[in-house]
Amino acid sequence: MTGASADSELALIVQAQRGDKQAFGELVRCHQAGVVGVAYRLCGNARLAEDAAQEAFVRAWQHLPAYQPRSAFRNWLYRIATNATLDSLRRERPSLELDELTPDRSDDGLQARVERHEQADVVRQAVMALPDASRAVLVLREYEEMSYREIADTLGIPMGTVMSRLSYARERLRSSLSHLLEAR
Amino acid sequence: MTEEHVTTWLGARFDGELDGQQLRLVDAHLAECPRCRAALADLRKVSSLLRSVPGAESLATPERFVANVGLRLSLRQRRQGRGLLETGWSLVPLGLLAIWSFLQSVFLVSELVVAAIWLGASNVALAGLLPAGLAGLLPSAAVETGASQILTDATTVTWLLWLNLVLPLSVVVLFWSWLIVNWPQSSRFRARS
Question: What is the ipTM of this complex?
């Protein structure tokens, strides 16, 4: 985020903290894609991710007066989104199914597309099989490209824990996806 | 570090989290150790495999998403307000019971006092029952003229009627009204659960 947009975001946050719903709506619009993205990577279901993202913004509004701009707003929001998604997942996991992936529209042959589709499905299932705590760290690192410090700040855990959870998640994936890794 | 494997630091090396002396040590080890180099290459493959999986875009347009959040927020606030009201409503019988107990204790004390008067205790004795400071507060008419005059006093009778009849009756009526009004709600709740 550039200096100017960080300033305008801070201004929106201050306005929203004073109860300005329009300013909060603007913040929602800015962070919608990121929050839905994190939620989706954590749960693998678009409907649940959308629902959890909305819930995260509702919780953010309720706790906004307590937000201190010491930490990045995005990190604070992602922390709420992670908790909201994991809560929803705990509630709905027994009946939850992973989404069908969107059809690949590349020009490759049908066989290659089917293979890519199947491979993506296997990877997603392996990620979903990770414990919630490790999956959250992995998603923030691999998909949001956060630094260890940012992940620690977002999830409220020490840096050492970030490293150990990430290492555990990667080791599990390396072992469960070994057949795909060999082919690469 | 160059003689021991650097497995613990490989993830941090891959993520660009190492610098200075630590980075140099890990790199020096990697230059000599094929096993750690292979482990680092595996990390790279896992990462690229993960990133090859497409994510999801929001199902709703930004406008619709913001509207949905706003709707959810107002529903939540309304539900919270209703929750407070429901808690207050469910506490009505407790409040009525508290009033009832208070009235009963007032009746008991007043009946004890009246009984003492009927039994012939003089107002002086009545005054003696009370703490020294409160005896002076007794109405001088009551102290001077005795029990019969107190009982015929219209104000006293009205007060006794209020205390013994109207107030308890109001509490009973309110309690039964609460039960009758609340009955359909609790039946619905039982049916839902």
Answer: 0.83
